[in-house]
Amino acid sequence: MSDSSIPAYADSRKIFQQEENISGILDLGRLPRFRKTLANDQGSVSLELKFSLSDEKKRLIEGRLQAQVNVFCQRCLKPLAIELADDIKLVLVQDEEAAQRLGADMDPWICEDYKLDLAELVEEQLILCTPIVSYHDSGDCIHQQHYVAGEDATENVTNDNPFSVLRSLKESDSSD
Ligand SMILES: [Zn+2]
User: Do residues 85 and 143 share a domain?
Assistant: First the structure.
């Protein structure tokens, strides 16, 4: 499971004309901003990106992202495995002004020079498709809370026990 097939940068002067495809697995270590939203660094991110020119010579980035990662459950604050999947359809533009000229049905990706940072693009899309809050299935969280309450109850019993056991031992001693 190497991510060496995904270069750090793609050359935007070539990839669209040459209709390149880039696919593979990206290590979470290459996605530090996304990693900060996760409970741990276990998981994987796979991507497929296709670069092409539209009939109007727009530079299209299309493809799909899939990720299995762990976020924090907002109810019990324990890690929760989630799957993310996102279809990508972006138009590469050089600046904010060009982005504004795009139709409402097209999302811009702004890249000011020819070096297109692939991890940054993937990271941004992953952050956008991650739910703001996630919860375990309610059964799993209730089990978690029930377990903690049960543990407390057991502790109370064991705290009382040494004395009552000791007392009963003393009582049986004195009755001898
Ligand atoms: Zn939970």
Answer: no
